[in-house]
Amino acid sequence: MSIPDAPDPASLQAENNSLKRQVFDLTAALGRLKETSDMYRMVADTAADAILCADGNLELVYANPSAGTLLKIAPARLVGKPFESILTPEGGRTLRQDLQQRMASALPSLRWSDVELTIVTAEEEQIPVDVSFGAVRSHEGHYRLTIFMRDARPRKRLEQESRERQSALAHANRLKSVGELAAGLAHELNQPLAAVCLHADLTSNLLDNNGDPADIRENTEIIAHQAERAAGIIAVLREMIRKNEPRQRQLDANETVRSVIRLLNSELHSRRIQLELQLAEGLPPVLADRTQIEQILVNLLQNAAESIAAADSPERTIRVETRHSGQAIEFEVTDSGPGLPADDPSRVFENFYTTKSSGLGIGLGICRSIAAMHRGQMLARNVSTGGASFVLTLPQMEERGE
């Protein structure tokens, strides 16, 4: 039996040095890994937003201090709980379904945000939160999730304050419009009131002289009709002046246009402007605040009339159209005035941009904001034959299933 040769001391030394280097490199790598882990932990622990980590079954494996503060519970007590346990039942079910659909894609990583959920704290307080998600898929096919939550109450307060400021500005703009319409409204109201007085006198004379009952009935019907006409004008005016919270209700597009026309008839007549109405029949309703939509139409028609008058256009026509377009209703106001800035017609929606010597330049900006609040939009363009066109688009009211 042969005895193996003794290892060469130089080879042993070289192998020993190699092992030492490997140990040193591993030790350094572990140190760097710990530093990175500590840094990530520090970032998570000091983050102002609540951060949660969960496995593919939505069981929480980590909660940072901000999560404990938001949920009013020690972070360690969250570990091991299902994420749905801190949500409302409905929110938990919806989230579970959404996650299952996303994870079915089997993508290596997933990110999505702009999710609003309602959490339930340890004290049973419900808090709206804005949530973002990130998910990474392991080699075994399991996802691990990181969940970022931010208290949505400050954002909602700011949005409410913004809506209140917008409402106040819109109300001021409506008062300005009504003030400009005062003379025309007085004339518009004078006609039905004069008719009421005239037919009341005729009825009185018929009664004194035992007149024909048919004539008396006809006069009383005329009185009732003219009184309703005056009441309708006053009702629209009162709604425009009143400062109310926006109330979205089912709205008939064509009836809304006709209400506005009743307010502006006298002004358009005094400016010798011809009004053309092209109102599509059978339009589905929209869900909107009537006063605010009337405000947009009043603003557009007044602007059109002022534009035609200022330019002393030979053709003095305003056309108002309604139509059904896809899943939306469109209102279009087209005038025969000088048109909009050729380089960028949409500039008219910028705050404080105006072509009027006495204008503030906020009316159309308010109109566009109102349209956006109704999930609609406003567009402006020049017409090839001359003049400007404004289109207000509002989504039609969704049909509710049985």
What does this 3D model show about the protein?
With 402 residues, the protein is an alpha+beta fold. It has helices spanning 9-46, 65-71, 75-78, 89-103, 153-180, 182-208, 213-241, 253-270, 290-311, 363-373, and strands at 50-54, 60-63, 109-120, 126-137, 143-151, 249-251, 274-279, 286-288, 317-325, 328-335, 377-382, 388-395. The strands form 3 sheets. The chain has a 5-stranded antiparallel β-sheet with strand order 2-1-5-4-3. A 5-stranded mixed β-sheet has the order 7-9-10-12-11, covered by helices on one side.
Q: How are the SSEs placed, and which strands pair?
A:
Blueprint (H helix, E strand, L loop, with lengths): L8 H38 L3 E5 L5 E4 L1 H7 L3 H4 L10 H15 L5 E12 L5 E12 L5 E9 L1 H28 L1 H27 L4 H29 L7 E3 L1 H18 L3 E6 L6 E3 L1 H22 L5 E9 L2 E8 L27 H11 L3 E6 L5 E8 L7
Parallel strand pairs: 7-9
Antiparallel strand pairs: 1-2, 1-5, 3-4, 4-5, 6-8, 9-10, 10-12, 11-12
Q: How do you describe this structure in short?
A:
The protein is α+β, with helices and mostly antiparallel strands. It has helices at 9-46, 65-71, 75-78, 89-103, 153-180, 182-208, 213-241, 253-270, 290-311, 363-373; strands at residues 50-54, 60-63, 109-120, 126-137, 143-151, 249-251, 274-279, 286-288, 317-325, 328-335, 377-382, 388-395.
Q: What is the count of helical runs? A: 10
State the total count of DSSP E strands. 12
State the end-to-end distance. Answer: 96 Å
CATH topology of the largest domain: Heat Shock Protein 90
Give the overall average pLDDT. Answer: 81
Q: What proportion strand?
A: 15-25%
Supply the CATH class of the largest domain.
Alpha Beta
> What is the CA-atom radius of gyration, in angstroms?
35 Å
Strand order of the largest sheet: 2-1-5-4-3
Q: Tell me the overall shape.
A: elongated
Supply the CATH architecture of the largest domain: 2-Layer Sandwich
Order of helices and strands: HEEHHHEEEHHHEHEEHEEHEE
Low-confidence stretches: 357-361
Largest sheet: 5 strands, antiparallel
Helix content: 40-55%
Task: Count the domains.
Answer: 2
